[in-house]
Amino acid sequence: MLELRNQFIMPPIKLGYSEGDGLVNQKHIDFYKRRSKHIGAITIEPLYLDSGLREIPAQLGIDNDEKNEGLKKLTNLIHLNGAKVIAHLNHPGRMANPKIPGNFFISSTDKACENGGAVPKKMNREMMDDVIKMFVDSAKRAVASGIDIIELQFGHGYLLSQFISPAVNDRTDEYGGSFNNRVTFPLEVLLSVRDAVDVSLIARISADEMISSGIHIEEMIEFSHLLEEKGIDAIHVSAGSVCSTPPWFFQHMFIPKGKAWELASRIKKKINVPVIFVGRINSSKDVELLNEKYDADYIAVGRAMVADSDFVGKILNKVEGNIRPCLACADGCLGGVKRGEGLSCVVNPLVNTSLHEISKADSLKKIAVIGGGLAGMEAAITLKERGHQVDLYEKNKLGGQFNLASLPPNKESLKDIVDYFNAEIESHKINLIQKEAVETDIEKGNYDAIIMATGAVPDISPIKGLKEFYWTEFLNDDELPHG
Ligand SMILES: Cc1cc2nc3c(=O)[nH]c(=O)nc-3n(C[C@H](O)[C@H](O)[C@H](O)COP(=O)(O)O)c2cc1C
Ligand code: SF4
Fold first, then answer.
1. For residue 217, what is the enclosing H or E element?
2. Ligand 2 pocket test, candidate residues 254, 283, 305, 329, most atoms within 8 A of CB
3. Residue 251, Cβ neighbours under 10 Å: how many?
4. Comparing 29-38, 268-277, 435-444, 472-481, which segment has the lowest mean pLDDT?
5. Which residues are catalytic?
6. pLDDT grade, residue 30 (50/70/90)?
7. Taking Cα atoms as reference points, which of 417, 416, 376 lies closest to residue 394?
8. What's the gap in Å between 328 CA and the centre of ligand 2?
9. Which domains, ranges and CATH numbers included, belong to the chain?
10. Of 220, 387, 403, 460, which residue has the fewest beta carbons closer than 10 angstroms?
11. pLDDT digits (tens, 9 = 90+) for 243-287
């Protein structure tokens, strides 16, 4: 057992907030402090074990004792909020970022990931011993920093799963071939860390890599038995691989929701240690289902906590208000990290800014917001929370062009944000004026300020003879064939 105050855990999510030195800074502190008020445990973003093993330049490190002070400060602040802290230790193997100068690449194989990445060196015994030492030293640093729990990465296509996966491991020695051979080195890492530190250990695994030649559930049930036998305290069941099937790994909206939960449930039925369920868990309905149908021990909520830092507080009825839903788009979070801008969020404008709370304004104004698309609604709600008097003008349906975004197949989750804003406009008692704002409205309204949020119209190409053209109006609900 992990002994948390409740069943919710924030899983590892790369933030990309460090300044290239791998050290904790104010941005990390603000991000996790805001999210640790109600949750059981926070997993800090994956910590690099060596500066030559980074996935992104702005990753946090645990590769030397200089990192301990910052990690200690961060851990203390999270503890003050009542949550436990988990250090996620991962060796990326051949998936270290080839664009970062000084990175090095090792693996069970000497073949690069088929979708890109550097050609790795096939590991010999000496390299394996070096890797074990890195895990052990980093685990000791985590404990010295006051961190409560260590999570070891055995999944997602990183080094240890590059040994486990038959799709990657092409060795003919005692570390390749049969299942028992492929899991030998990963279990050596576990046993060495187990011997070195006296804290709870979680194993993160991919129950299925979602490629025919890769890891599948039957072997992972067997592996879970071995993990249990060797003293693991919980198993965190995810899916996919960063090399072959990244959308499974970060659970994009195109991936069937709930498939990872089914895999976790199959493992849970066969073992006695607790299982952590993960993957697009972003509503109270999801949490209820996981508890009622699967009897989930622990529930990992990642992007739900990015989109709404009070997600767990709201689920537990400790914070009032509607849940700002994560859309599983990955545009702001993963996109921000990949672009080198750091994690942000398309539905939560406070992420990746120095603003953390909406404060009351010193002087109160009367403000008109013209246009009830997402930007207009967000502006109206924020102004109201600041204490201003707000009139929101919208001649059509609230949500604007974003109402069209959820119509294509597999994009249904995008509708959730329009529903959320509609509910917020109502609960904030914002004066909604359902008409086009004209000059006399503005004159009569006697406003101190006006926000134009009327959106944009597409550019029309100067094509000779073009007389009739359509934008997206044919997608409007009423225009679509029904039945
Ligand atoms: C921006 C981003 C970065 C992530 N980085 C990692 C990572 O480095 N290691 C890892 O095991 N999982 C990583 N994940 C996956 C999450 O831990 C989690 O499994 C996934 O987001 C699904 O859970 P969620 O739907 O609750 O967010 C990342 C996810 C996102 C969105
Ligand atoms: S950017 Fe999209 S996927 Fe990422 S947390 Fe925000 S809503 Fe969720």
1. helix 217-229
2. 329
3. 25
4. 472-481
5. 158
6. very high
7. 376
8. 5
9. 8-338 (3.20.20.70), 366-478 (3.40.50.720)
10. 460
11. 999 999 999 999 999 999 999 999 999 999 999 999 999 999 999
